Every structure is written in structure tokens, then in C-alpha cells.
Amino acid sequence: MTASAPLTAKAASAELPAIAASTPVSLTATALHHSWGSIFSADYFFANPAAAGSLLSIAGSALVGILTLSGVGITLWVNRAGLLKQLRAAEVEAERNRAFNTKQASEDREHSRKEAAIDRENSANQEHVARLMEMRKVLYQTLIEEHQKAVALVAFLPTVPIAEISSAPAKLLGYAAAAQKTMIISEVSTSRAATDAHAKVNEFLFSLFPRLIPLANAQTDIDEVAKRLARNREQLAALNAEFGAVTPENVAAWGRYKFNSDKLSADFENLAAQQQKAWAHRNALLAEYQDSMMSQLHDVHRPFVAFLALARAELGLSGSAEELILQTETMFARASAAMAKFKADVARMQS
User: Is the pTM of this model over 0.90?
Assistant: First the structure.
């Protein structure tokens, strides 16, 4: 095999005289016509360096192509892996966002539902409070009116007939009903103050009852004397009308007329004296009654002022209890001064 190498080379040279001057492509095409053993032998490539260069060039190109394709494939694979990773990350992020958005939307709906429920509850509470405030305002005005009626009743009891005095407590039933209504629409402290004020008025009324009986009896005596005086005047007028003027016909009757007239006049003076005495007795009893009433009236009104202060606070009105107490003290001081002046004037007129 080694010994025949020169001969093979010569044969190849003879058969392919133009290979050296041919292009690499021509050389490659010509070389393909020969057997693989003769073309790719070392002697052939040593004898034909151009073919060797072409082959090396082809191999290098193929290697470069393979490397290029491998690089492209690796790049594509890496890019694909990166894209897949990014896609998976994007899917995970999208899923996370969807879950977060779903949760956030659910929380927002729940929050909106709760806010709407709170708003409805607040609106209902505000309407309830507004209605409650209006009811309280009306009730407290009623309590003020009933309290003043009760005080006026106590002040005018001396003028009430004795048969009607026992029915006086029944006239405070409106006050009692109004005070009891505070138990269902007022604060506990305000309701307690209202019921205390009503109880104080009742105690005030019953404390004055013992003084009302003598006053009623004195008024009965006055009325009885007034009736007897009226009958006396009627009898005297009838006697004068019956007798008329003195004439010869009735001279004999003059003595009887004079006796009866004098007797009626004496009875009139006696009754008038009894009337003055009865009035004096009644006025003394009335003065005692009024003194007792005025001495207690201030204490009676004090718990009512405490109720008013709590009622004002419930209704959101400004002002303190101290201001109301001071106002009440001033009012009673002026009322006491006016009462003292009235009694002094009456005493001066009677003297």
C-alpha cells in the first residue's frame, strides 16, 4: 500500500491534469468521482494541497455552521426556557393578581356592605333619636305645665269648698302620668328627677291639708253670716214696705214697727260684727297658710329645677344647673318681696 502510493499519485496527476488550476468546488466535485479511499488518503492531500485546503475549509465551514447552529439552538433553547420561565412567572403573577383582585373585590364588597349597613343603622338611629328628642321635648313641656298647675292648685286651695278639698290630689294625676312617661323615653337620671319633683309636690299638698280644714270652716262661718245678713236686710225692707209712712190709720202700729225695726237693726250690727270677726279669723288662718306655703315652695321647686337641668342636657341645650338655680333663687326672692309688700298693704288698710 505504501509502495504503490507514487504510482497512484502519478495516475491521479495524469487523469486530473487541471485539478491544480481548478476551483475548490471543481476539485471537490472531481474528488467525489474517485473512491473514498483514494480521495481521503494522506498522500492525496499531500499531493493536492488545494484539495486539502478546500476540505479543511469545508470542514471548518461545517464546524462553524454546526457551532453556529448549536449556538442558535442553545440560544433558542435558553430563550425558550427563559420565555417559559417568564410565562410561568407571568401566569403565577397573573394568578396571584387575580386572586388578590378577587380577594380585594370581595373585601371591597364586604366593606361596602358593612358601610351601607352602618349608614342604614346610623340613619335609623338618627331618625330614632330625632323622634325621641321631639317626644321628650313635648313631654317636658307638659311636665312644666303640670308642675305650674299643681303649684297654682295649692295656692288656690283656700278658696275651694271643704267638700272639694279631698278631690284635690286627683287633679295631680296628669302630673303623675307625665312623670311616669319619662321612664320609657328619658334617661334614668332625668326620669328619677321628674318623679322626685312630682313626689315633692304631693308631699307639699298633703302637708298643707291640716291648715285647709280650719280655713274652710272659717269660710263656712263667713258664708253663714253673709246669708243671715242678707235675710236681715230682706226682713227690714219688707217691714219698711209693710209699714210705709206714718198715718192716722197706722199710728197704733207704730210701736210694733219700731220694736221690730230696732230688733232687726241690732241683729244686723251683731251679724256685721260677727262677719268682721270671721273675716279676721280667716285672714289670720290664710296668712298662716300662705307663710307655710311660701316657706315650702322654694324646697318644692328645687327638685323640679334639677329635673329641668337634666332635661336641658338631654335636649342639647346650653346652660348649667347652677344658672337655673340662681335664676330660681332670684325669682323666689322677688316673689317673697312682693308677698311681704302685699301683706303690709293689707294690714295698713285694715288698721
Answer: no
Work out the end-to-end distance of the chain between its first and last CA atoms, rounded to an integer number of angstroms.
182
Residue pair 293/210 in contact by the 8 Å Cβ criterion? no
Nearest Cα residue to 297 out of 229, 232, 208: 208
DSSP 284-315: HHHHHHHHHHHHHHHHHHHHHHHHHHHHHHHT
pLDDT value for 25: 45
DSSP 23-72: -HHHHHHHHTTS-HHHHTSHHHHHH-HHHHHHHHHHHHHHHHHHHHHHHH
pLDDT digits (tens, 9 = 90+) for 98-107: 888 888 888 8
Of all residues in the chain, the percent with pLDDT exceeding 90 is 16
| Cell numbers for 100 | 388578590
Alpha carbon distances (Å) from 108 to 100, 101, 117: 12, 10, 14
- Average pLDDT of the segment spanning 157-163: 80
